[in-house]
Each structure stands twice: as C-alpha cells, then as structure tokens.
Amino acid sequence: MTHTATRIPDGFLWGASTAAHQIEGNNTNSDWWRKEHTPGTRIAEPSLDACDSYHRWREDMDLLADLGFTDYRFSIEWARIEPAPGHFSRAELDHYRRMVEGALERGLRPMVTLHHFTVPQWFEERGGWTADGSAELFARFAERSGAVVSEGVRHVCTINEPNMIAVMAGAAKAGDVGFPPAGLPTPDEETTEAVIAAHLAAKAALRVAAPGALIGWTIANQVYQPLPGAEEVTAAYRYPREDVFIEAAREDDWIGVQSYTRTRIGPDGPIPAPGDAERTLTQWEYYPPAVGHALRHTAAVAGDVPLIVTENGIATDDDARRIDYYTGALSEVASALDDGLDVRGYLAWSALDNYEWGSYRPTFGLIAVDARSFERTPKPSGRWLGAIGRTRELPRAAS
Q1: Are 350 and 16 in contact (CB under 8 A)?
Q2: Which domains are delineated in the chain?
C-alpha cells in the first residue's frame, strides 16, 4: 500500500546502473580477471562471459528505454582502452563512444564512470594506486576518455566507491582475512590519499577534455547508526571509512550517494544485525530507509554539492520483496526532496542480474539474464520502477 506521491522535479535523473566488468564479459586485461583465475583468492567463480553486454549493449539500452527509464549509468573499461602502458585503443574508444551515441538515440542520458573497481593488469603490476605517478596515469586515461564523454555526456564519475578501494587495500595489508561480522576493515591511509589525488587529477584533466561535463565521484555510505552513548565512537569509526571521501568532493559538481543497508555502532564498535533480522542474498540487513539516512548524512558533510543516488537496491530472488524495498527507499528520497535536499536523480542497482564480484548468486537486477542464452527478461520490479519515469511521481510507503 502507498499513499501521497511526490512529484519528480524537472530534469531529475531516473535510471539504472551497471559496471563494465560485471556485465561485459571477457575483460581479460584487467586485474580482476587475473584474480578470478588465480588459486587461493577465495573468489567463488570467475566472471567469464558475464552478461555479454559488450556485444549486447543495444538490447540492454532498448529494454531500459522501453521500461521508462531516462538515464543509464555505465562504466568504460580502462583495461580495454589502455591494455598496455601508453597504448590507447582507438577501437575501444570508438566502441564506448558508440554506446554514448546509442544511449542518446534511445532517449537515455548517459552517465559515464571511468573507474568501477578494475584497473589494467599493468597498472596493478607497477604498484596500483599508491605507486609513484599513478594519479598522473589515471589523469592521462581521463584525458583520453574525452573522446567518449566530450559530447552528449552531462555527468562523469571519476572513481566508483573510493572508500571501498581503500578498505580493500587495508584488508590486503592485514593479510586479506576477509570482512568482520559487522562493519568494514580499516582503510589503508596511503590508498585513501592516493585515490583522492587521482580523483583531483582526473577532474582537472576532464575540465579540459570534456568542458561541458559535470564531474563527481560516488561514495559507499554504510549508514552508521550510533546506539545511545556511542556518538563519538561512531564519528571516529566513520571518518576514515566514509567522511574523508565526502569531504574531498566538496568542490565537485555533484556527489553520488550509494547505500543498501545500515551498520549499528555501540561503545565497542560495529554490532551485527539481530539474529532474527531479514537478510538479503548478500546477507545484509533488509533496510529500505538506508538511502534516506545516506542522503541526509552526505548533505551534512558535503555542504551545497548536489546529490545523486547512483546506486541503491537489493539482492533477492523474491521480486515482490524487491518492489517493497524500492517503495521504502523511494519514500525516503521523496522525504528528502520535500525537506529541500538538493537531490538530482535516482539510479537503481542494478539494470541486470550480473557478476557481483565473485559470484552470480546475488541477484540485484531489474532485468534477469539467462546464463546460457543471455536472454534478457524484464522483471515486474523493472516494469514497476521504470513506469515511475512516465508518471513522474515517487511512491510514499504507508506508515
């Protein structure tokens, strides 16, 4: 049940998101491809063909446009564009430029991400983000990406979830023991500084290569909620995992808010969700209000920077539950808009059931993909969510 709707503002982004490595398939020059095929990395299964979206992107865009979406966030793959240091593939740049043009032809505004968790193998071999000159190398890639984004692309994201890059680097330095039962590993401070420097360098390069683009990055917001008396503990825990990256975006054109669940913090740190809490296929607590908390916290830290929800969704095989989740989440977005927050768009994760960094089991997609035939089938949730792009009214969850 829903009641009073909130009208979507003019120009509001309404779409879904994907990442190249998770949907394209056969990204053989990337660091993740190597990890997937290296024994002992604890990766359940390799990406292989993924959704074959490298060849089927037209069908993906057709479906999104037909469902009613007006925007599509996708990433371009650095490992394809620059497979060897200093060698930029004109064919791959042309490929991604065709995707931009294809989106525009279908009435989809493209949001392009330059880095979504994968780097070329050669970049990893030279030491990754913390090696000397890495910020300049990423800026060089951003400059060359102007061939893709200089026309028709309004929003460009430099780096997706830099805080998670720092967290994963911290886990690796600690022996890659995996994630704790609640909360995140301690981020690597050197990596934090390096990705912030890379973002700033890429932004400067894009100002020249794509002067009409609005540039930002996206942060994974964990929605840290303090128990009574744990406010200072929460602030200290959150800062290196989140707020330092939000602060780095204060001079950006926009900032991407990405949230899925919450993390409660007690006097001694993160507390696991109750044993009887509903959990998703990623084992996260089912918590639709997360996006509202994330928007408000980001606005409080970032100041006047416009906000875009660039990822929000649920891994479930119960599509009715997916609709329930989105109803609750969009109610929070509506409340944020009603309260005057400068929210410029909402892009769901994910357009397709895809490779979720080690496994195909967590299904976030609004569109199902057959693993053998690659046949795409829109889910009822995709039809329901896409239709909001036509009604232009956000649902409000019944209280």
Answers
A1: yes
A2: 2-392 (3.20.20.80)
